Amino acid sequence: MPPRKRPAPPLEEPPPSSKPAPDTKPSEPTKSGPDSETPTISATVLAKLPNMEKQVYTLIFEAGSKGMWLLDVRKKLNISPNIATKVVRTLVTHHLLKEVSDVRHRSRKIFMATDFQPSDEITGGTWYHDGKLDTDAVSAVRRRCQAQVEKLGAATVQMIHNGILRDDPKAGYTIDKIRDIVRTMVLDKVLEEVKSTGEGEFAAVRSGTMCYRLAGAAQGGMMEGIPCGVCPRIDECSPDGVISPTTCVYYKKWLQMDF
């Protein structure tokens, strides 16, 4: 008789250490720590705070990097100005909250949990220092943006940004900051936003793409906008003819332009 096959051994169960105990709940994620991307409120801190301080601290903490105006704290918790001020000041003393300046509303008192850094919306971002606009820094980057546009004739924000970093790799400007500056230059009529035709001064910019060039007639000299070059009846125009520069309304308008 052929030898009998042995039955397959039973599957081994995982060691007890890898199985949760019957009455043990899965562990919750750590509430706070140096590796957390976004700060989370500490249960230990909350446990030590009296009820009103706990409510105020939780409310302001949840506002994150935008902080909260003291008046909003009062309204949301329905407490008097004296109580709100006293509680907030106590939390500041305990280094749980801090007062920050808001460049948009200098008269408002904004409070924020010390775990957060104020957002650019509050500080003004790169162009502000200690709550004040750094006019020298803004002027410097505006000159750089203008130099790039003058060099290229017409350029997108990306092209301006690339050109600045190519000339000065240590400049450190983000494309968003360059975009902000370019927008202010458009408002100040230093630059104008136009759609590329893909030809002439727009040769480096894909047709149909929004880009920027120097405002006014600076981008090609005063002869660039003369209407005669595109007039369909230019062959019939003469000083003494029915059609002439002296009777042409378009020519007169062009002569009146401030070059």
From TrEMBL:
GO-annotated cellular components: cytoplasm; nucleoplasm; RNA polymerase III complex
Domain of life according to the entry: Eukaryota
Keywords carried by this UniProt record: DNA-directed RNA polymerase, Nucleus, Transcription
Gene3D superfamilies: Winged helix-like DNA-binding domain superfamily/Winged helix DNA-binding domain
Statement: the UniProt record of this protein carries the keyword Transcription: yes
SUPFAM superfamilies documented for this protein: Winged helix' DNA-binding domain
Pro residues composition-biased segments: 8-19
Pfam families recorded: RNA_pol_Rpc34 (PF05158)
Entries under InterPro entries matching the protein: RNA_pol_Rpc34, RNA_pol_Rpc34-like, WH-like_DNA-bd_sf, WH_DNA-bd_sf
Transcription is among the record's keywords: yes
Stretches for region Disordered: 1-39
Location in the cell: Nucleus
Start-end of Polar residues biased regions: 27-39
Family per record: Belongs to the eukaryotic RPC34/RPC39 RNA polymerase subunit family.
Name of the molecule in the record: DNA-directed RNA polymerase III subunit RPC6
Record lineage: Eukaryota, Viridiplantae, Streptophyta, Embryophyta, Tracheophyta
